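Q&A log
Question type: sequence-to-structure
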Amino acid sequence: LWGCGSAGADTTTVVDKGKKLYLSYGCALCHGRNGDGNGINAQKFNPLPTDFHNPKAYLHGRDRDSIRRSIQYGTKEDNSIMPAFEDIPPEELGQIISYLEFLQKKEIFVSNAWVQAMPPAQKVSAAYMIIANNSQKEVILVSASSDIAGATEIHQMSEINGMMNMAMVSNVHIPARGKLTLQPGGYHIMLINLKKPANKGGIVPITLHFQDGDSIIVNADVLDQ
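Response status: OK
Response body:
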């Protein structure tokens, strides 16, 4: 897995700095917080912004020099609206490129992560997301954790004798080259005994734990849906 702690310390530092720069330069407005092409401005454009974790989506190639040229000179000649970012210092540009390379290599990729906003008196909420397994082997999600909650559990909604039933599950299998969708009415992550309100516009960090010992930290947006 490519998650927090799975790379060496130096690589992790560069990737973390690259993501912060990616966000600070406004890349997420089009490409999304996690680089999956679904930023708040994405639907305004045709073609859609690049999904950086899809190696086939890069207009000019996905090697470091091709990514550098795309960022520095833009991609308007390819019927895209991406402007040129000529003034990014070389060191910062290199860190952004390292972050995009990291997205390409991730075997487990999490997108569309969100938590249901709740009024202050409500002590329970739920988290939803899409977990894509880009590896050639099955992976098993065994638990989740979050500092915002006293308990964090994986649950599944199912219909039994015409009635909807919710039950905790011990693990969920994600097939090779497959995905798991956590959504209302299906699998989801329960955040129980909230230590602080889940306010709209906030961010809730959630750590996903897998059977092989790896983990991924997901920053879920708090939405009122």
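Response note: The first strand starts at residue 108 and ends at 116.
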